[in-house]
Every structure is written in structure tokens, then in C-alpha cells.
Design brief:
It is built from seven helices and twelve strands. The protein is an alpha+beta fold and about 325 residues long.
Length: about 325
Amino acid sequence: GTALGGGVVTVAAGTGGALTLSTTTADALGISVSNVEIDVPEKTGGLTTAASASGTATTVASIGVGSYDATNGIAIGDTLNFVFTYDGVEYEASHRFTSVPADAAAFRTILETAVEAAVPVGGGAALGDGEIVVTNTVGALSFATVATGTAKTLALSSIGTVPKVLADHTGGLVAAVSVVSVAGLAQTISLASAVSTDPTKIRDGVTYTYNLDGVGGYTARLNELSDLLSTTMNFSATSDADTNADLADFAASSVSWLQDTRKAALSESEYKTTLLEETQKTLSNETGINMDEQLTKLIEIERSYQASSKLISTIDEMLETLLNSI
């Protein structure tokens, strides 16, 4: 978007250097401020110059790091970070200062310890000792490979120190910024000051006077607004309503679209409800007990029993008659 520009918010200096942001408009506007701080770049890690290596690995016996400077602003709690490549493997090293190194010899020890504890970027075991030593010649520090009879690739890059607490850098302010919460929209609704002094502005508008002659019963502006309501205008095609209509017709087409959408949603809901009920009924018929069917089978079994009993009784009578006749 566009810049805020001048004449909207001013900064005032009060008693004792206290600073305040204020709106300059006649109407009250919500204003708040937060996250005021200074962007602190990495320091040079205790070196007067950046690392002499460009970061490209080359086969060398040693590589210069820089000269130690005890006055460059290392503080307790700062963290030293750097990346180096050794024998084709990229390592990450770090050290958190618990005290400020007194001289280049003390800083050399810190660097060497950090190198030995460095781990590959992709993960793995620490480099350990016996691979790289840090030398100190009149304050100038260098990484050197331990002689093994085989040349090793060596490079150094991204050496620097991160301050302990970045939040301490508050943009030059001695205290945290006081935050004024933005009021809710309903709370900000009010009559413009111009309307309060001249109620006719409700009709004419606060920034323009339509009734220049102050004629009583002035209706031209109201008629103009009424005519605009019936003026055809273009609307977005994404609204699914009329794209070329007056305001009343557009509102009617919007209501019609809403009714059609509601009807389609209701029809879909009723269809799915019916489908669910029929599915549940079919499932019940397949897996449940049909009482009508079970009652029919019970009557059939009862009648079969009665018929079998009658048959047995008849045969018994026949046998008895036969035996008596003999």
C-alpha cells in the first residue's frame, strides 16, 4: 500500500525526554506501538578483520582467521559461531563466553576447543583433537592441519558473535514501550465533530455543502441519492447475482440466489436423510430379527407338530385294533 505520510501521526518530546505518538486528526483513532528495537548484526567474533578465507575449500596447510582484539565488545553470555570445511566435510562450531578472553592466547584456546567439539552440519561425531590446531603468531590466529602425510582441504566462513540478549537493544528507549490497545469498532462509532456543531451536515455531508444558498426545504441532495438507488451499475460476477442492475434489483437477485442455495441445500439434506433411513432399514432386515417372519414360522411348526401328533395317534389306534382282532 501507500505510505502513511505526514500530518497523521506526530511524535512529541515531553518532560525528561519522554516520547509520545499522537494522532493529529480531529476524530479519535486507535493507535498502538510494539516491537521497537535495534537490529543488532553479528559482531566479528573477537577479530579485527573478517576471516581471511572466502569459504571455498582449498588444499592448504593452514588458513588465516584474523587478529584478536580484546576491545571489540565481546560480553559474557555472547555466543561465537562459525563454519569450517575440513577434508570435504562441513562442520559447525560454537562457544558461549563465560568470561572475556584476556588476550590472543586465551582466545586461541577457545577457538581450538570449539574446533575439536565441532560436529558435521548433517550430523555425526565431533571432529575431535589431532586434526586441526589453532596457532597464534603475534596475535594473528590461523587454523592449521596436523601433518599426516596427506594434504587436507580447509576453509573457514561465517565467523561471528551473537549478543547474549537481543531484546536489550530497545531502540534507544530506557524503558519498554507502553502499548495502547486499539478500541473495538463499536466503541469508536460516534458523530463527527462537524455534525455536532452543525446538524445540517447529516444531510449535506461533513466535507461538502450541497445547499450553498441555505434554501429552506432543500431536497436536491436527497433526490440525487434517491436517483442513484435506481441507477444501473456493474457488480462482481463472483456474487452469483445480477452483474448489471440497480441497487434494489441487485438486492432482490441476491435474496433469490440465497433462497435457491438454501433450497438446494435442504433438498440435498432430505435426500441424504432418506438414504440413511433406507440403508438402516435394509441393514436391520439383513442382520436383525423380523418378528412377522418368526411368528409365521412358529405357527407353521405348531401345525406340523399337531399333524404329526394326530398321525401317531391314528397309527396307535390302528395297531391296537389289529392286535385285538388277533
